[in-house]
Amino acid sequence: MQFDSRTISEMDKRYRAHLMNSMSGFRSANLIGTKAMNGQENLAVFNSVCHIGANPPLMGFILRPLTVTRDTYDHIMESGYYTINHIHHSFINKAHHTAAKYPTEVSEFKKAGLTPHYENKFHAPYVKESLVRIGLSFEEAIPIKANNTIMMVGKVQELHIDDALVAEDGWVDLSKAGTVAISNIDTYYKTELIDRLAYSKPDESVKSLLKK
Description:
It is a single chain. The protein has 212 residues and is of the alpha+beta class. The chain is built from six helices and twelve strands. The strands form three sheets. It has a seven-stranded antiparallel beta sheet with strand order 3-2-6-9-10-5-4. The chain has a three-stranded antiparallel beta sheet with strand order 1-11-12. A hairpin with a 4-residue loop joins strand 9 and strand 10. The protein is globular and about 55 Å long.
């Protein structure tokens, strides 16, 4: 199949959305937890979380246009804090249900059957069921003029990771954690570790870092 810009623009809206969302490949599947200053908790599934840098430790995610109420955005801008929690294959149905459009005063934690969990007096709630949890403070919101979306950038303030998942050099085995990948906005995949490769150098063969 081949598509040019004209045929893409003329596609059925839903067909085009599925096609373009799938074409970018596998992405991370995460739940972002927030809490308003009045104590109202919110939880939402996101497929756009990405690593931005390690020093300082920064992560980003994309927010859709603010043409409707975005509780995640409102809570972050109000409180300055949020959490990113990996989705594991043991609770993908519950995680996916957080995409349902509930009123602001309704907690997706309760509706999805997931557990809000607080660590070290951090303002935003974590997902207790997640084995990889990240607490962040808001750094900046970068508008993307091409489609009116926003790149939200946060600084990592704390990490909570199951001990068994972290290697001596800091590498985290996400396959062992059961962390899933996502394609489109509705398709979840289990991950399988293939190999971990050493830093590539000119004129040297690539070597595995895993003990085999």
